[in-house]
Write the structure tokens for this entry.
Amino acid sequence: MEAAEKANVSTPLIKRLDLSKGDKFDTMLQGVLDVANLPDPIGKVTFANKLDEGLDLYRVTCPIGVLLVIFESRPEVIANITALAIKSANAVILKGGKESFHSFAAISRLVGEALSGTEIPPGAVQLIESRQEVSDLLKQDRYIDLVIPRGSNELVRSIKSNTKIPVLGHADGLCSVYVHGDADVDMAVRIVIDSKTNYAAACNAAEGLLVQRCALKSHLPSLAKALIDAGVSLKVTPEIGEALKEAGVAGTGSATIMSAEEKDFETEFLSFTIAVAAVEEVDEAIKHINAHSSKHTDSIVTASKEIADKFLNGVDSSGVFWNASTRFSDGFRYGFGTEVGISTSKIHARGPVGLEGLTCYQYQLRGSGQVAADYVGAGGKKEFKHEQLDM
Amino acid sequence: MEAAEKANVSTPLIKRLDLSKGDKFDTMLQGVLDVANLPDPIGKVTFANKLDEGLDLYRVTCPIGVLLVIFESRPEVIANITALAIKSANAVILKGGKESFHSFAAISRLVGEALSGTEIPPGAVQLIESRQEVSDLLKQDRYIDLVIPRGSNELVRSIKSNTKIPVLGHADGLCSVYVHGDADVDMAVRIVIDSKTNYAAACNAAEGLLVQRCALKSHLPSLAKALIDAGVSLKVTPEIGEALKEAGVAGTGSATIMSAEEKDFETEFLSFTIAVAAVEEVDEAIKHINAHSSKHTDSIVTASKEIADKFLNGVDSSGVFWNASTRFSDGFRYGFGTEVGISTSKIHARGPVGLEGLTCYQYQLRGSGQVAADYVGAGGKKEFKHEQLDM
């Protein structure tokens, strides 16, 4: 603590770093126990097929291998990630924010001591300290199987462009809410306010609001007033600006109404600002979102199941919500217990990633001396049975 | 044909390019019909969780998006890949081997005509011609979601190092067979011969043979004789060379016995050559394979389930086989109907990849106006129910 104060670390950061503050330590401990209590993700048979008599194929979940996890400076994170890695039988190399290095080193030493009494090799969990080590390790695509960067967009982007190792994570959280003309106004207001203001710095907070053109009189004024009352500034298209002027809605205090530029619809404000535009129909909303969003989470508010289905099937994001806040996009809320991160990739795991995202699978074939040459396609006459086996 | 002959294309290649040869056209047609008859891979609910009353979460399979597929010159391949892409609702950009460009263009025109009578936009399947186009497209990681290179190791390697887009495929097929001391000798011989000689140019052919040290007298001579009789050259460690000399096994004709260098255990011969070494125990076999193989497919021959389980759980390859030829590692043999390719990656799809590998999923949340702020963890008191829903 004193060292942190001397090093001119800001007070809110010091608070975040102090593990003895409030119930932080107990929460950390509970997090580890929660992971320990999750079902074992390894060795599960997810597909089984009898190829022939005495020739059975099983798809079995297994660890990915060696993970490189780069994370922020909250000291409790190292305990959670270590627990997840051990539970999923992966080896992990950890690099945390430099402000907490001494806490990390102490926790890491304890982890090593605890592991020494088990069958897990002590080298399965390793802590590194410097950025140079990270950049050296990013070159080791033969030995490291997955990189998980948690932290700023810049960090994630820089890692993605500096490695051939697959990266699990998300650089941006550009989420939107689309309010259809038939939406209940109060419901739309609640969802938009929660999506924007519940935790504006989160990746699942809304950065854009789309309103159906036919709702510019019926819905837009209430939405805009509620946002301004909550302290949110609006960046609006000329059409929205005009509609607000007609409805007599104006900014107050720090919550202003400004003209939006094109880039505002691709900006992650992470603050009390939202970009607002009108669209003619749900199709245009889908098109706008697919063109501008980061494929994280987008929500529609509508009374119509048909319109909702169109939106849910048309929007190419990891989370597509109907009549719910974008803020529900989260591993804990989804019921995964804990999350490794949120992925906006469309390969491997997508959306909030739990333990399952730290596993892959292998095909185990259990035979009794069979050779391919006896079967059709490889020179022989025998036909495969291909009967699904009971798992 | 005449153009091909004029362009000095080799006769075996001309045969492979000629779609009117034998039953090639009918096989191609059947392949397309087979894909059409596969179950629809899109829109399947793979996880469903009631977060709260009227707040239901569904994980639903969806297409990946835009695929870039680079493939060899066999003209039937374009029909198969197009069928797979359409079936999985992905858009696809196709680049085939230049020798078949005119066939590809003709098939592609027919695909376009067929699609024009459907709801599928004609641009969903596009053919490109030049390498320059490929290298331009490899930079479009914002618009292309997955690259699938099929072809030579050099092609796959060069693509992997020239794009940020995820790549599904395999550069190497370095497979091994390990013969444990308790193996039935005849079974071991059949499996080794099939793994090596059934189709030596395939990625699932064995390139390495490991024999337990205690079996150098009981098993090795039969294995070596059978290989040499089948025309296979052996590259052997000094220990193996010594054992063969003692047993009086020598090369004949083109099937020679040579000293192995370290690099022979990491060489994909793709021909009638195999590298042979002795290991003390199954643990050493596992270590050797994990250090040298390309994580494709490795097989153990043993009478012991316990030893087999150790091998299957210890070898980090996409296929781990017990008492079966490595040649079974194949989408058709696994019962997937058809395969897009074989992946040695541990992220996304692994091993032979069927239609499933061309899908991802999104989380659809269907609510009734819920906001996060009402729930624990985001400022409220409501608890999540997290009850698994019937799918």
Chain A has 13 helices and 17 strands. The first helix of chain A runs from residue 2 to 6.
